[in-house]
Amino acid sequence: MDVGTLVADARRGRPRAVARLITLVENAAAAPGGDERLREVMAAFATATGPEGGRGPYGARVIGLTGSPGVGKSTSTGVLIRAFRRRGRRVGVLAVDPSSPFTGGALLGDRVRMQEHATDPEVFIRSMASRGHLGGLAWATPQALRVLDAAGCDVILVETVGVGQAEVDVARLADTTVVLLAPGMGDGIQAAKAGILEVADVFVVNKADRDGAQALVRELRNTVAPLRGPWRPPIVSTVASKGEGADDLIAALDKHTAYLDESGELRRRRLARARDEIETIALARLRARFAAEGRERRLDRLAERLVAAETDPYTAADELLADLG
Ligand SMILES: Nc1nc2c(ncn2[C@@H]2O[C@H](COP(=O)(O)OP(=O)(O)OP(=O)(O)O)[C@@H](O)[C@H]2O)c(=O)[nH]1
Ligand SMILES: [Mg+2]
Q1: Which ligand is nearest to the CA of 178?
Q2: Ligand 2 is a single-atom ion; what residues have CB below 5 A from it?
Q3: 56-263 has which fold?
Q4: Distance of alpha carbon 32 from alpha carbon 46, whole angstroms
Q5: Which residue in 33, 62, 185, 229 is deepest, having the highest Cβ count within 10 Å?
Q6: Every domain of the chain and the residues it spans
Q7: What is the distance between the alpha carbons of residues 197 and 72, in angstroms, rounded to a whole number?
């Protein structure tokens, strides 16, 4: 199918076109910088207004959910889909697993948990894996968000497993970042990875039906209380598997959205996101050019000369970058 038709169909919210375009993004992520068709797609989406008319790119509100494996991210995502659908919103879901090189596997369980939405034409659910390419997800995720945005999603939920850098990365993509914790998972505040407090806009203590939930909330409250700044992350208790606490969570998310608008923080975050997007693509293209122009071999020779103490690393880097044009 030609790009023009795919783009037009995606903007009409046709699920097959949306799925194909995200596959295009995912495949291109395996060889960043090399997909001219994707470039056409992004150009069309970046300037056109959304299906409702008048709405520019990124009308969608992006909500990231992160936390340790099994904490209840997918179940909570299901709860949020239901809540937003009740409000008549079109919802996109992107499940990103930086630890898995496979697509599909991670989604299997999620499909079950989100099954009731499988036939809803106003809900797009998609998983993306890293494809083993370093930085592939950082490159692909923003573009997948653009596809869902162009398809007229009002809300996009991004689920990321909180391993290592992932929490921080998802926070940079999202307008609002939800960090989930649960009792009895060795997941107390002390165990939480560094940086988690800083990226959370909303904390969820899920599995509130389990022992230790109250203690975890108290511990979290003590940790968050001294935090200064215009926004103090609220702490919401939920039992996602029963839908309990859904209204509180939605209320906390709405409050954060209002704060983002009023404070100008939304614009700041979106500028930072745009900056990351451009830089990531530029660096990937640079890398692709390096490979195409045989600079890898030049790099090998420079490495040999550096080891042989015939040059210094700065001069070698200058030589590598010379005549890039
Ligand atoms: N008791 C209890 N179990 C829950 C709750 N929420 C989710 N679960 C269960 O916890 C398990 C993991 O839930 P998921 O939603 O798959 O967790 P996840 O964070 O998406 O997991 P990964 O994607 O594998 O990282 C499932 O068996 C859920 O049914 C809850 O509030 N209470
Ligand atoms: Mg999950």
Answers
A1: 1
A2: 73-74
A3: Rossmann fold (3.40.50)
A4: 19
A5: 62
A6: 56-263, 276-324
A7: 18
By most ligand atoms within 8 Å of CB, the mutation choice from 71, 75, 115 for ligand 1 is: 75
CB hemisphere CA count around 195 (13 angstroms): 14
CA dihedral 242, 246, 248, 251 (to 10 degrees): 180
Q: Which of 156, 202, 158, 157 is nearest to 179 (CA)?
A: 202
Ligand 1 atom nearest to 109, measured from its CA: 16
131 pLDDT above the threshold of 80: no
pLDDT digits (tens, 9 = 90+) for 7-28: 999 999 999 999 999 988 888 8
Question: How many CB atoms lie under 10 A from the CB of residue 1?
Answer: 9
What is the distance in A from the centroid of ligand 2 to the CA of 207? Answer: 15
pLDDT at 325: 61
Mean pLDDT of 265-288: 88
Q: What share of the chain is helix, strand, coil (3-state, %, to 5)?
A: 55, 15, 35
Residue 242 phi, psi (nearest 5): -115, 5
Report CA 219 to chain centroid distance, whole Å.
28
Span 223-249, pLDDT tens digits: 887 777 889 999 999 999 999 999 999
Encode 223-233: b = buried (16+ Cβ within 10 Å), e = exposed: ebeeeeeeeeb
Q: Report CA(261)–ligand 2 centroid distance (Å).
A: 29
Q: How far apart are CA 35 and CA 29, in angstroms?
A: 9
Which of 66, 68, 74 maximizes ligand 1 atoms within 8 Å of its Cβ, making it the mutation to test the pocket? Answer: 74
- What is the Cα–Cα distance from 90 to 219, expressed in whole angstroms? 36
